[in-house]
Amino acid sequence: MARAELTIDLPDSVWISEISTTYPDTLFRVLAAFPDEEHGVALLDVSGPDVVEALQAMHESDAVTQLDPLEQDDDSVLVQFETDEPLLLFSLREAGLPLEPPLEISDGKGTLEVVAPHAKLSQLREQLDAFGMDFEVGYLYESGDSERLLTPRQQEVLVAAIEAGYYDTPRESTLTDLADDLDTAKSTLSETLHRAEETAIKQFATNLPAFDQEELTA
Q1: pTM, 2 dp
Q2: Residue 198 main-chain phi, psi, to 5 deg
Q3: SS3 41
Q4: Of the residues 7, 63, 66, 196, which has the maximum number of CB atoms within 10 A of its CB?
Q5: What is the rounded distance in angstroms from the CA atom of residue 166 to the CA atom of residue 182?
Q6: Is the distance from CB of 6 to CB of 139 less than 8 angstroms?
Q7: Contacts for 138-144 with beta carbons within 8 Å, 24 or more apart?
Q8: What pLDDT score does 211 carry?
Q9: What is the pLDDT of residues 11-36, one digit of tens each?
Q10: DSSP state of 107
């Protein structure tokens, strides 16, 4: 089971991306949400210096079909709203994952933590790709472990290698290509990539069924 933090670039055409980009100092925190077949309903805490303007923009958005203020503090408002463009909720639903609040949205980006089997994370990536949403992984832990599986740099290098086709058959990128793309020395990249591969392979091996060494040599 993996625990990952994802920061997702929301498409410019999506209403919450447009509003949060217009008011970048405003924080939208989704505290609870669920999707039905065509809509999403959420409990949202909106805070920051432009709360009134941001809520007015939500009220005027065609994608927000209902907006009900519930509580108000000095610089925040708790609202319940309904939208027919809950792209993140749909992505999670199609991947078979629940939303684990809070989902924080600011300046066109959404940040959330996901705890799921690795296969589910792969499905989520496919769904985000299908909706045209790029993302970055802030951290990746094995759930229950106190240490990260990969350091941020190892993670960056490994993801770059995968996306460049370094592990494809036939290989679409060389170590030299990767070093040029990442603007780093080839020897340094090789060492970082090797350590990342070692960690990933050993972690994968711990999930394999136990076997009897004697059976293999019999």
Answers
A1: 0.65
A2: -60, -45
A3: strand
A4: 196
A5: 13
A6: no
A7: 138/4, 138/5, 138/6, 138/7, 138/111, 139/3, 139/4, 139/5, 140/2, 140/3, 140/4, 141/2, 141/3, 141/4, 142/1, 142/2, 142/3, 142/203, 143/1, 143/2, 143/3, 143/115, 144/1
A8: 47
A9: 999 999 999 999 999 999 999 998 87
A10: T
> Which helix (H) or strand (E) segment is 115 a member of?
strand 109-116
Q: Write the single-letter amino acid at 116.
A: A
Residues in the chain where the model's pLDDT stays below 70: 142-149, 203-218
Contact between 131 and 9 under an 8 Å Cβ cutoff? The reply is no
- Residue 55's closest CA among 71, 40, 39? 71
β-strand partners of 28? 46, 105
Q: Please, what is the Cα angle at 127 between 4 and 118, to 5 degrees?
A: 40
Residue type, 101: P
Q: Which pair of structure tokens corresponds to residue 146?
A: 């106190």
CA distances from residue 161 to 174, 189, 194, 204 in whole angstroms, order as listed = 9, 10, 12, 18
Under DSSP, the state recorded for 208 is: S
Residue length of the chain? 218
Structure tokens at 161: 């290698």
> Which of 142, 150, 97, 148 lies closest to 121 in space, CA to CA?
97
Give me 9's structure tokens: 């670039």
Helix extents (H) in the chain: 15-22, 51-60, 87-94, 118-130, 152-163, 175-182, 186-205, 213-217
DSSP, res 172: S
